[in-house]
Amino acid sequence: MKVLISAFFVVLSCMYAYCQKGKTELCIVNPDAVLRKYHTIDELNNLGKGELINLYKERFRVLVYLLPYCALSSKPGITLKDLGIPENSENKTLLEKENKTGEEFDKAVNASLDNFIAYADRSNIIWAILFYEDTIRKVSLGKDY
Predict the structure, then answer these.
(1) Each residue of 15-71: pLDDT tens digit?
(2) From CA 71, how far away is CA 83, in angstroms rounded?
(3) Which has the closest alpha carbon to 59: 37, 27, 31, 28?
(4) Measured distance CA(122)–CA(133) in Å, rounded
(5) CA distance 64 to 33
(6) Residues sharing a CB contact under 8 Å with residue 70, sequence separation 6 or more, in sequence order
(7) Do 138 and 145 contact (CB within 8 A), yes or no?
(8) Which of 15, 36, 66, 71 has the fewest CB atoms within 10 Å of its CB?
(9) DSSP code of residue 94
(10) Are 50 and 115 in contact, with CB atoms under 8 Å apart?
C-alpha cells in the first residue's frame, strides 16, 4: 500500500512540474514545428496516396508554425525568454490566445484537407510536399541557406 501511495505522489509531482513548466515557458515557435525526414521524389513516388496526404498535412502544419516568426527564430520550442522578449502579461496573453486560435485553425484546416486533397492528382501532392519541405529547410536554416 505504501508503494502505491508513493507512486501516486511521484506521478502527481511529475504532472505538477510538467504543468508548471508549460505555464511559465510559452513557446513563440511551436515545439512540433520539426520535420524528422525530408523526402526525395523517388521515395514519395513509392508511397500510397493516403501516406502522401498525411505527409502533406504534416508539412503544411510545420510551415504554419514556422513562417510567422521566422524573422525572430526558426527554432522549434524557442521561448519568449530565449529571445529576450519580456514575459509580461500582455505577451503571455497574446501567445495563449494564438495557441487557442491555432488549435481551432489546425482542426478546421485538417478537416478541409481530409476532404479535398484526396481529389488532387498524386503528382501534385508530391510536388507540394517537395515544395513544402524545401521551404521548411530554407526557413530552418535561416539566412545561411
Answers:
(1) 333 333 444 578 888 898 999 999 999 999 999 999 999 999 999 999 999 999 989
(2) 11
(3) 37
(4) 16
(5) 8
(6) 139, 142
(7) yes
(8) 36
(9) H
(10) no
Q: State the number of CA atoms in the 13 A half-sphere of 58 facing the CB.
A: 14
DSSP 79: B
Alpha-helical runs (H) found in 25-121: 41-45, 49-66, 80-83, 89-116
Categorize the per-residue pLDDT at 141 as very low, low, confident or very high, splitting at 50, 70 and 90.
confident
Q: What span, in angstroms and rounded, lies between the C-alpha atoms of 134 and 35?
A: 11
d(CA 11, CA 67): 37
d(CA 55, CA 125): 9
Structure pTM? 0.77
- Whether 125 contacts 49, CB under 8 Å: yes
